[in-house]
Structure formats: C-alpha cells, structure tokens
Amino acid sequence: MTGGELHQSLDHEALGLLTGMHEAGSVEETVEAVADFAKYAFGASSAAILLGQNPKRLEVAASTEGGDALVRLAVTDSGPISDAFESPAAVVVGDITAQHRWPGWPPDIEHDLRSLLLVRLRIGQRPAGLLLAGHPEPGAFDTDDAAVAHIVARHASVAVAGSRQQATLAEAVDARKLVGQAMGILMERYEIDSDRAFAVLRRYSQDTNTKLRQIAIQLIETRALPGLEPPRRTGDD
C-alpha cells in the first residue's frame, strides 16, 4: 500500500487524526497525535510512542489509555523491542502467550494484551524510536497491518522531525531575544556598544562553561553576573 492508497482508505475521523498529527505544534503534541492515529488506524486497544536512538534507552514519549501496560510488556531485555528497532520490517506478535521467538518473554506482569505490533521510526538515516500497538485478541494484526505500519511510521517520523525542527527554531529565536536583552543591560550599565556587550557575554559563557542563553537569562533575572569584571567603556581604548 502506498501513501496515497492509505490516504484514500482512511475515513473522515482517521483523516482528521492524520491531519492533526502533521499540524500539531510541539513535539509533545505531535507524539500524542501519532499515538492516537496509530491506535485508530490499526484498531488497537492501546498505542505508544518510544523515542531514542538506542533500543535499551528508549523513553516513553506518548501513550494512549492502556498504553502503560503495553510499554511495560514490550520494553524488556528479552522481548521484541531490539528486533523491531533493528528490523526494516514491522514486527507482529500474533499471540503473546504462545510465542517462542523470545525465550523468557513476556514478563510476568498483569495485562490483557495478546497481540503486538511494533515498527521502527526513522529520521533521515537514523533510528528515532518505535511505534507500538496492542490488542487483547490474538491475531489482531496481520500482514496488511504490517504494511500499513510502514506508511504510518513514515508519516509519524516526518511529523516528529518537523516538530523538532520547529522547536529548535523557536528556541533559537528565543535565545536571540534573550541575548539581545542581556546586551542591552550591559550597554546601558557600562556605556559600551553592542559588539563589546556581546563579547562580554561570550567570554563569560566560555569562562564559566555555561550556555549563552543561560547567561542571558541570569543577567535579565538578577541584573548581575557573579565575578564579572566591568568592561571598559567604548571609546576608552
């Protein structure tokens, strides 16, 4: 199934969820929308999004109702997480209670799930996490679901990458504004120009091994930087 075929096969509610996934603002809102869409698209009882570049260090970014049990069931040393993280294909567990692929799995926890679907998320050429879906009936996910999972994962990866980029840009704009305010404080207090004010902030950042943005916030909030030697006024050179 192609992306266009998936789009044509979705009903009005699913299209709304898909649109919401791409139009969400923050990374948090995006992964929540991805989980909601995955749950609906696969007819799952629960879904979850794990983010990270190491299968042993994945963090739960979002989950639908019932997703906690899904995550506890899947995220174990002996389960399908590592296989799904390394596999270009989606991993489908038809019946958790009857599988023999992963000895010692599933863990002895209380849950009502029998079927699992796991598919890798990628941003560029790098693994970015996993999408999980669960269902209380055995055989709930088939080869068609596995094929659709790739399309959903691509949509999810694009949405997450876009939201991260927007967050980075917003943070950069915010940092520039903060640094500008801090420079203004130094310029007024020490009668220096903007170039010298920025040089003072940059040197203080290097000397204290502190990010420039944090230095700016500290100066704005406290009106002081501990240990800062007053710079010479512009024109005193």
From TrEMBL:
MF GO annotations: kinase activity; RNA binding
Keyword Transferase set for record: yes
Annotated signal peptide: none
Keyword terms: Kinase, Transcription, Transcription regulation, Transferase
SMART domains according to UniProt: ANTAR (SM01012), GAF (SM00065)
A Pfam match: ANTAR
Domain ANTAR: 159-220
InterPro entries referenced in this protein's UniProt entry, alphabetically: ANTAR (IPR005561), CheY-like_superfamily (IPR011006), GAF (IPR003018), GAF-like_dom_sf (IPR029016), GAF_ANTAR (IPR012074), WH-like_DNA-bd_sf (IPR036388)
Gene3D superfamilies: 3.30.450.40, Winged helix-like DNA-binding domain superfamily/Winged helix DNA-binding domain
Protein name: GAF domain-containing protein
The organism of origin for this protein: Microlunatus parietis
Lineage start: Bacteria, Bacillati, Actinomycetota, Actinomycetes, Propionibacteriales
